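Support request, please re-run this one:
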Amino acid sequence: MPTLSGEDSFMRTAPDYLQFYPTTRCNRSCSFCFNNTLPPVDDMGPGDFRTMLDVMDRAGITTLDVIGGEPTLHKEIVGMLFAAQQQGLQVNVSSNGSDPELLAEIIASGTDRLRVGVSVNDGETLDRLKPFIARHRPVVKSVHHRGMEQALIEEIITAGPGQYYLLYRDALDPGGLNDTVPFDRFLSGLNGGLHAAGIGSVYCSGFLPDTDSAPELAQVRCPAGTTKLGVMPDGSVYPCNLFFGRPEFRFGNILTDPFESIWNHEGLAFFRSFSGNRCPRISCAIHDQCHGGCPAHSLLHFGSLDGPEPRCIP
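Re-run finished. Output below.
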């Protein structure tokens, strides 16, 4: 873990992990995805990737979350993932499962530092991936949405994944809000029996901070700039991947700029402070524990990082 320093004694000298896009290319057009609005960026090459690994090593960053874009579309992905593991990083890879043969190769060449996850959001994808899931037992993830079928969830569990998670749905455009539910309803559904069925959940700590793994999150608005940063294929660094492509939130380049200058950028100050939940739904059962949701959603829907969480209000 990076050591603590600075005027704020809780603040780290580096995040725990990077959200990294090796490519912005994808071979799917999922309704919940926001990457189709990103400007075109060339894939990161192996040389630049090794430069990034060296920066991570010097900074003390221990984990690389490889997302995208579809990572398996990168022609050098197998070697890049292996190099990251050889450097001692925990490597998490999230894929849409469109190339199970390549995923199997990644797993075969991997170490105990590798975790592969696939997204399954419909029966057709599940049927195609059942042999892969049964043999390799990857993490399986589904994006939660309004009216989600319990039968699909049960069939995924029966397929035998190593772990199964429901992800709280992002909704970065007005149309996406129609498929979401308020966060407290998502949480109550999990507590109503899904956890007992062995189902985990993934959501931003801008709602409920994960203080068990990172006590600092109790004092910040969200994990951006404390436990994570986002890196695009060209090395551009943002608070998290939801801000990718927005120039006002580009805080440097991990390939060319000193990491300290990125980490100490004044633009991260908002994310590193918390003065109480400003959500107008004060009757919400978790209002006192919640940190207000995702600032990126507030910005895109209401024009302010400090606005309300759009998925939680009428």
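The chain has a mean pLDDT of 92. Strands lie at 17-20, 63-66, 90-95, 114-119, 139-143, 163-167, 199-202, 228-231, 237-238.
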